[in-house]
Please model this.
Amino acid sequence: MLKLKNKKSTITGLHILGGIYTKETKKLNSPKLTKRYISKIIKKFELHELGSFYYKFPQNGGFTGLVSLVESHIAIHTWPELGYLTLDVYLCNYSKDNSDTCKKVFREIIKLFKPIKVKKITIIR
Model:
């Protein structure tokens, strides 16, 4: 856990929630591509995957994916018909401050979808 200087509170992690607009509708329909891409990012940033689950909705309905990490989780939900996805990246600070890594992981994942517009909320926990 990260102690704030001159403050009594403790930061346990960073949580980034995003709404991403894109024209990459084929990618919004591809849980396999996304799973491979996210797995590479997890390895790149030396995070520890516990398991993942991806569900493809029928008839071009997009997919939902969840990756459980020792450090917390990554969740993605896509709506190809809207050119939209939501992304949730939360990394806890068990043995080190993962805030910077959380920001980088979020940026790396959205690169896959070539965003036109990104709405983002950052929560310090």
Q: What stands out?
A: The mean pLDDT is 92. The chain has three helices and eight strands.
